[in-house]
Write a structure and sequence with these properties.
Blueprint (H helix, E strand, L loop, with lengths): L1 E2 L13 E3 L5 E3 L2 E2 L16 E9 L6 E11 L4 H11 L13 H18 L6 H16 L3 E3 L1 H6 L11 E3 L6 H16 L3 E5 L19 H19 L6 E6 L5 H20 L20 E6 L1 H9 L2 E5 L6 E6 H15 L3 E4 H6 L24 E9 L4 E3 L5 E3 L1 H21 L5 H10 L2 E6 L1 H7 L7 H29 L5 H21 L7 H22 L13 H6 L14 E5 L5 E5 L2 H8 L4 H14 L27 H11 L10 E4 L5 H13 L4 E6 L10 H12 L26 E8 L2 E9 L5 E8 L5 H18 L4 H8 L8 E5 L2 E4 L2 H13 L2 H6 L5 H10 L11 H7 L19 E3 L7 H9 L16 E3 L2 E3 L11
Parallel strand pairs: 8-9, 9-10, 10-11, 11-14, 15-18, 21-22
Antiparallel strand pairs: 1-4, 2-3, 5-6, 7-15, 8-15, 12-13, 14-22, 16-17, 19-20, 20-28, 23-24, 24-25, 26-27, 29-30
EC number: 1.17.4.1
Cofactor: adenosylcob(III)alamin
Protein name: Vitamin B12-dependent ribonucleotide reductase
Length: 967
């Protein structure tokens, strides 16, 4: 994407001298076009349409947000449009200042970046600045990447231009510092971001004050901070404050810290049993403490080796370093596992591993993280994030061969890192100390989303050597390219201020990354070329870094990508696998459907299955929600379709191994919770924490199903209250009942019809479908080849019953939804190219009737398409027929009168198999609960009432984009 002529030539581009940041003389970047066309703006290459955005709380029907006539590309989903309009458009709704188009939003951000880049001499010429603007706009417009939410909230507005989502604070052992902590944390929460800090400098309750009394200890001060966070969350409205509290394992109060949330869980049980409302969001839950933070214990290698050997471990005084007491390391470690098993806290952070990869140790140790655990750097610092949509780089050729477009990926990473670094030039920060540190070290956090979807689409199981190799290769290429661009920027606008002091350490860490890349295992035709590109990038990093230094102390992390993942229409967030194979989707104009993820047919194609087999397997998934016993699917391929929830789930160690595969190639860490089944034991949790250390991860958190007592607001309570409100008063007059009787509408003597011969599983038959002259299907006659057989008699009776129902007004789509996927013999292959497989004769009959008599939108919602439409979807991602596939005039002449022959205009990028979503479902999590009969442990969204889903260490609402985290 971008080139510079500093150092050995990369493309032989010209350079321009100029004054860089800090008065340094540098050479501007030459920007090459990758996606855009000279003389044409990216906005002119897409089809725009107007949408109405009306978002409601499904529990009470109240309208949360409404803005009509907003402008978006026609390829954007309803969900992405809703979330961007409601969360990112600036200006009061209903005023001329309100943004109404995605163009305005992107222009507001991109033009600010361009102007800052020109002001600080990043570009070789105005022409390069214009190409930068166009390429950045194209990538955002086409959902190739996204900046984190604060960029969309603040950049280009009159308010402070805060671009960072992640913050780390510090606190010392003084009352003044503790009160500053409360204030600084509150200001960050007020702005919608999150912060973390380490409390280990505060003296323990087992130590003395200078006055002779006992210190309060960090746990007591956590109460005040927790109450403050809860109050700001309540006043600010829609989500809990995001915060992380860390305590070192050698702190004398570590046991009290470990037990804080466990004791509060016991309080919840007692109060609940006494009749108090302890549901999450209930009236009485606020009496429970320590619920607004994620807690983590920071362990070191000395402690972990003592755990392995069963030795003693010293807890030391904060001021003197003297041993306060010795504890059994294994017993303390088990207490951590017991607490995490009971209530998911504390998580664990591996201090020596973290600081082994620290690029700036001479400026201070890394002692804490942001709330989601992906950003780890100096105290009083911040990180702005951006994430790439990996599915945008998966290529399929005409022969079905897949490849990851490493060359284009490199160019987009270069573009994004350049933009992210420019943002620090104009960014505002919530405190003076954070601003100073961030400008001095320029920490960036490029990452990605949709890894789970990419792995499935390429036929890789999430928990497999091949899947881990591809994930590691992509991560290595991303970080290597980022640091190479950072070194190139250092030649133009200078290295970060703290680089001179930390040069040796920074280059040592670059060598560690490069060695890990060299040692990584190559697996197949997909990951090997990516590893090769990554190796080249790391060689450039080592060479250019020693020559130029680096512009950024940190380059990459793997964040939850909650709201921005929905903005990019990603199926999976961050490094997470698919939640389930079937998900929930909103439709233009209202309504919803359940769809089989688009990645499933891609995966089946990659694994060598024929189109008719793919169709049958997808139909099975649509009905059952899993691949178990899917027709024709080899059991050895089941693991490819394993998900976070459902019939077949990824093992806890599968999650840890994936984190370990990516971790050596990240500057920071990974936001991820290891989900564990309810049958998991304390020993299982302890083993996860131990293996996380051995495998080299930087931080881990676990969640055992159904371990939390405080559950989401009860839908049963809500329903009971609604039912109670609807009950008429005892004294009210009885409601008058008006009886309605349907009237049969008979067909005329002469009626248009279609006779179709068919074969299903070897059984032959004929179907005659007659229609009203102007009002659709009116009767069906079914004849089987063996006259007088029981099957033929039942088909005669069945066809009469259906025909009478149609004439009394039963909609055909009702019959189709009820009888498709009904299974009995005969079943199997058919002679109909549009319905290649049928699970019974009834299944075939109603699929054929739907294709002949229902309009496209209706049958598409039921997951019924012609062969031409399915082929087009595999090739283009859209079911919409091309001109060469559909002769409208011929169809209108031959079709029965009353058949809708208008050209179909489907939803863009509709997934493989669709059917109307159950009315009770409002998100993928709720849909999965209904399919599997389970209860997902996730809170309800405070904004719209839908059940959220995991995104890294946080929760994400698919309905409105709200998150419980900081990104």
């Amino acid at each position: 994407m971008t080139e510079t002529t500093s150092g050995p030539a990369r493309g032989g581009s010209r350079a321009k001298g100029g004054k860089g940041v800090g008065g340094k003389t540098g050479k501007g970047l030459r920007i090459e076009r990758v996606h855009t066309t000279p003389g044409t703006h990216p906005y002119d290459e897409v089809v725009w349409e107007r949408r109405d955005v009306v978002m409601t709380n499904w529990r009470d029907g109240s309208v949360n947000f409404e803005q009509r006539g907003v402008e978006f590309p026609d390829t954007w989903s309803v969900n992405a449009v809703n979330i961007v309009t409601s969360k990112y458009f600036r200006g009061a709704v209903g005023t001329p200042q309100r943004e109404t188009s995605l163009r305005q939003l992107i222009d507001r951000v991109v033009r600010t970046y361009r102007e800052a880049g020109e002001k600080h001499d990043y570009f070789a010429s105005p022409a390069d600045a214009e190409i930068f603007e166009h390429e950045l706009a194209y990538a955002l417009l086409h959902q190739i990447f996204s900046f984190n939410s604060p960029v969309w909230f603040n950049v280009g507005t009159a308010q402070p231009q805060q671009v960072s989502a992640c913050f780390i604070l510090s606190v010392d052992d003084s009352m003044e510092s503790i009160l500053d902590w409360y204030k600084e944390e509150g200001m960050i929460f007020k702005g919608g971001s999150g912060a973390g800090l380490n409390l280990s400098r505060i003296r323990s309750s087992k130590e003395l004050l200078s006055s002779g009394g006992n210190a309060s200890g960090p746990v007591s001060f956590m109460r005040g901070a927790d109450a403050s966070a809860g109050t700001i969350k309540s006043g600010g409205a829609t989500r809990r404050a995001a915060k992380m509290v860390v305590l070192d394992v050698d702190h004398p109060d570590v046991e009290a810290f470990i037990e804080t949330k466990v004791k509060e869980e016991e309080k919840i049980r007692a109060l609940r049993d006494a009749g108090f409302d302890m549901d999450l969001g209930g009236d009485d839950i606020t009496s429970v403490q320590y619920q607004n933070a994620n807690n983590s214990v920071r362990v070191n290698d000395t402690f972990m080796r003592a755990v392995e050997s069963g030795g003693k471990f010293a807890l030391t005084a904060r001021k003197t370093g003297e041993t306060v007491e010795e504890v059994d390391a294994r017993a303390l470690f088990r207490k951590m596992a017991e607490a995490a098993h009971a209530c998911a806290d504390p998580g664990i952070q591996y201090d020596d591993t973290i600081n082994h990869w620290h690029t700036s140790p001479e400026s201070g140790r890394i002692s804490a993280s942001n709330p989601c655990s992906e950003y780890m750097h100096l105290d009083n610092s911040s990180c702005n994030l951006a994430s790439l949509n990996l599915m945008k780089f998966l290529s399929d050729d005409d022969q079905g061969h897949q490849s990851f477009d490493a060359e284009r990926f490199v160019k987009v990473v270069e573009l994004v890192i350049t933009a992210m670094d420019i943002s620090i030039c104009f960014a505002d920060f919530p405190t003076h100390k954070i601003g100073e540190t961030t400008r001095a070290f320029r920490q960036l956090g490029i990452g990605y989303a949709n890894l789970g979807a990419l792995l499935m689409a390429t036929g890789h199981a999430y928990d497999s050597d091949g899947g881990r190799a591809l994930a590691g290769a992509i991560t290595s290429l991303m970080t290597g390219t980022s640091y190479r661009r950072s070194a190139e920027l250092a030649a133009i606008v200078g290295p970060y201020e703290g680089y001179a002091l930390n040069a040796e350490a920074h280059n040592r860490v670059m060598e560690q990354h490069a060695r890990a890349n060299t040692d990584a295992r190559r697996m197949d035709d997909l990951d090997t070329p990516v590893w090769a590109a990554a190796t080249e990038a790391w060689q450039d990093v080592l060479r250019l870094g020693k020559k130029n230094g680096f512009r950024n102390a940190q380059a990459s992390v793997l964040a939850p990508t909650g709201t921005i993942g929905l903005m990019m229409d990603c199926d999976t967030t961050g490094i997470e696998p698919d939640l389930a194979l079937v998900k929930f989707k909103k439709l233009v104009g209202g309504g919803s459907m359940q769809i089989v993820n688009n990645t499933v047919p891609k995966a089946l194609k990659r694994l060598g299955y024929r189109p008719e087999q793919v169709e049958a397997i997808v139909a099975h998934i649509a009905e059952h929600g899993n691949v178990v016993d899917a027709p024709g699917l080899s059991t050895e391929h089941y693991e490819v379709f394993d998900c976070a929830m459902g019939e077949r789930t990824i093992s806890p160690m599968g999650h840890v191994r994936m984190m370990a595969a990516a971790q050596p190639f990240l500057s920071g860490a990974i936001s991820k919770t290891v989900n564990m089944p309810s049958t998991s034991t304390v020993d299982d949790v302890a083993e996860i924490y131990l293996q996380g250390w051995k495998l080299g991860t930087k931080a881990l958190a676990v969640y055992v199903e159904n371990s939390k007592v405080g559950q989401p607001l009860s839908a049963k309570k809500t329903a009971a209250k609604e039912k109670e409100a609807e009950q008429p008063a005892a004294s009210a007059e009885p409601e008058k009942v008006v009886e309605y009787r349907p009237v049969r509408k008979r067909l005329p003597k002469g009626r248009p019809g279609i006779t179709t011969s068919f074969t299903v599983g070897g059984a032959e038959g004929y179907m005659t479908a007659n229609s009203y002259p102007d009002d659709g299907l009116g009767e069906v006659f079914l004849k089987m080849s063996k006259q007088g057989s029981t099957l033929a008699g039942m088909m005669d009776a069945f066809s009469i019953a259906v025909s009478v129902g149609l004439q009394y007004g039963v909609p055909l789509e009702t019959y189709v939804s009820k009888f498709t996927n009904m299974r009995f013999e005969p079943a199997g292959m058919t002679d109909d190219q549009d319905v290649r497989m049928a699970q019974s004769i009834v299944d075939y009959i109603f699929r054929r009737l739907a294709l002949d008599f229902l309009p496209f939108e209706t049958r598409s919602a039921l997951g019924i398409h012609t062969a031409a439409e399915r082929q087009r979807h595999l090739e283009t991602g859209s079911y919409e027929p091309g001109d060469d596939e559909l002769d409208i005039e011929a169809l209108s002449q031959s079709a029965p009168r009353g058949l809708d022959t208008s050209p179909p205009r489907p939803e863009p990028e509709v997934a493989a198999e669709e059917r109307p979503a159950p009315r009770e479902a409002h998100s993928s999590t709720e849909l999965l609960e209904m399919q599997l009969g389970l209860n997902a442990d996730a809170p309800l969204c405070f904004s719209c009432g839908t059940k959220m889903r995991r995104a890294g260490s946080c929760y994400l609402c698919e309905g409105c984009g709200s998150t419980s985290g900081c990104s």
